[in-house]
Every structure is written in C-alpha cells, then in structure tokens.
Design a protein that fits this description.
Number of strands: 3
Helix content: 40-55%
Strand order of the largest sheet: 1-2-3
Strand content: 15-25%
Low-confidence stretches: none
Structural class: alpha+beta
Length: about 160
C-alpha cells in the first residue's frame, strides 16, 4: 500500500471522512463491520438510490494476516513479536482506510465531473439480496468473456 504507507491518519478519522463523503453524495446509510479473527477484515456497506431503486454496495478490506505474522518475527531469532504484530495490524488498518477514502473521493469527483457514471464505477461492488457482489458473480467466469457473449456471464452457473 505504497500510496498511504506510513499514514498518521487514524482509522476513526478516515471512517468519519468516508461517512461524510457518502452522506454528502446521497447515500441513504452506511454500515461498518469489523472481523478480528484469523482472517481480519473490515467491510463497508452503503445504500445508494439509483433511479429510485436502492442499491447496496460492499467494499471489503482484507488483511493478509499470514504476511503480517511473518513480518512480525524477529529477524535474528525468528521469534514472534506480539507488539510488532499489533503495530503492523494498526498500520495496515490506517493505510487501508486511507486508500479507501481516497478511492471513493476520486471516484465521486469523476462522477461529479461527468467523466464516469456512478453506476459504472460502483457496479463491481453492488450486492444482490444474498450478499453477493457483481464481482463475486463475474470474477470466477471472467476468462469466458473473451470466448462468449457477455450476457452468458450473467447467468449464474
């Protein structure tokens, strides 16, 4: 995460800025979910009205816990250092939230400028009623795109 590497902006500030950005843009609600288990992740969901139809979008920030655990080991002894691990997890969270804020901010500026329609930018993250995003459905079948009609990709297999 080179762009936000070493950011001093706390997670709470980035989340507050994301909330404000989405509220100002017209989102009807925002939800944050934190999962601290063996595969830590943060999920942002928001509801946006598209032509009077509420659409739910989901962004998931997943930490590579294995890589951070490896980096948390003492270089000489290989001993796991809990304090280094916690520091790296905190840094990862700050960087990930900062990048998400910057992405959303630039995406919404592009929408405002008329460069890209909002539904085009956010389409991969729109969820169906089961919680699957458009990307969840299409990514496993993306290789088919060059061999078949794009409409066939929309039929779940």
């Amino acid at each position: 995460m080179g762009y936000a590497k070493g950011t001093q902006v706390p997670v709470s500030k980035s989340r507050g800025q994301i909330d404000k950005l989405l509220r100002d843009w017209g989102a009807q609600g925002v939800q944050w979910t934190d999962e601290w288990g063996d595969s830590p992740k943060v999920t942002l969901r928001f509801i946006w009205d598209y032509k009077e139809t509420p659409l739910s979008a989901r962004f998931t920030l997943e930490m590579d816990d294995e890589a951070i655990r490896e980096e948390s080991c003492h270089l000489g002894t290989g001993q796991f250092l809990e304090s280094k691990y916690e520091r790296l997890r905190t840094a990862w969270a700050a960087e990930a939230h900062r990048l998400l804020f910057q992405f959303l901010k630039m995406a919404l500026h592009a929408v405002e400028a008329g460069l890209i329609p909002a539904e085009t930018i956010f389409m991969p993250w729109f969820e169906d009623q089961s919680g699957r995003t458009v990307a969840d459905v299409l990514m496993p079948r993306l290789e088919e795109l060059s061999r078949t009609s794009a409409t066939r990709l929309l039929v779940s297999g």
